[in-house]
Amino acid sequence: MSDHPASLSAARPFTTLSPDCLWNALDSVGLCGDGRLQALNSYENRVYQVGMENGPPLVVKVYRPTRWCDAAILEEHQFLFELEAAELPVVPPLRLCGDRSLHQYQGFRFAVFPRQGGRVPELNDSSTLEWMGRLLGRLHGVGATARYRARPALDIDGFGQESRDYLLNDGWLPAELAPAYRSIADQALDRIRRSFDRAGDYRPLRLHGDCYPGNLLWTDDGPHFVDFDDSRTGPAIQDLWMLLAGDRQERGIQLTDLAAGYECFSDFPVQQIQLIEPLRCLRIMHYAAWLARRWQDPAFPMAFPWFNTPSYWSEHINSLREQVAAMDEPPLWST
Fold it and tell me: Is pTM, for the whole model, over 0.90?
């Protein structure tokens, strides 16, 4: 890869994002910080909790340049506003400076959010899972009322085929492991396509997209959904399967609990249950390619020192083999 300034700027997009830049950005939208600044756990973007001179701390999210266009970010915000209007526990951005939610300062795009505390929920409890099912049924009811136009869909080509091609064509795999990766990735994509064919037509809807326990904050009032940055259009089951854990029997029971709550507000997508393992496989493939695409961002080698080693790629190939075997098994429920 070239090391000319333009490519370095793209690879290291947050180099000039200093604390002074952040405070000045806040000042540009009429917010006065008190100097307290805490970086929060985020790699794709940069997210900070900032102290305010008047009022509680806020959270500032600085978007990775070039990842989303403005329209795609605003679609995410609009979805959050719709969910808030439907009284769902989400955290939409503040509307500032003429009712705008997306702002720019010195080439950086950012949004400001209320701070939402909480803890990761205990998802081994049936009542908690039913609660989550009810909320997701309501969330998907809102998500089904409109479609994203600027945001891409969660699909096989974008998450699977493109990830496979990028890793092979850009030489990320060690030479001795590339044939094994190519073979198992092609087998996986074949199983995924067949599973989607068997599932038949379904109505894609706006999703959270990354609904794993780390993006749920539980308080005494219940859960809050946070971080819709990966929100896309896709099958409803995508927001459900990441809440399942344990062995096959445990996951089947958990899915039953989720469905009991979900069906209070929406028809449970029974036909999509056979997409759980294919979607898990797509996530595994996409994650490896995401790390590779971000590897020249200095934050990534520090946060993921185990990536791009021969042992990592061997384990990744084994994970894909396990997913191929899982996709050959019957779904958690028969349909």
Answer: yes
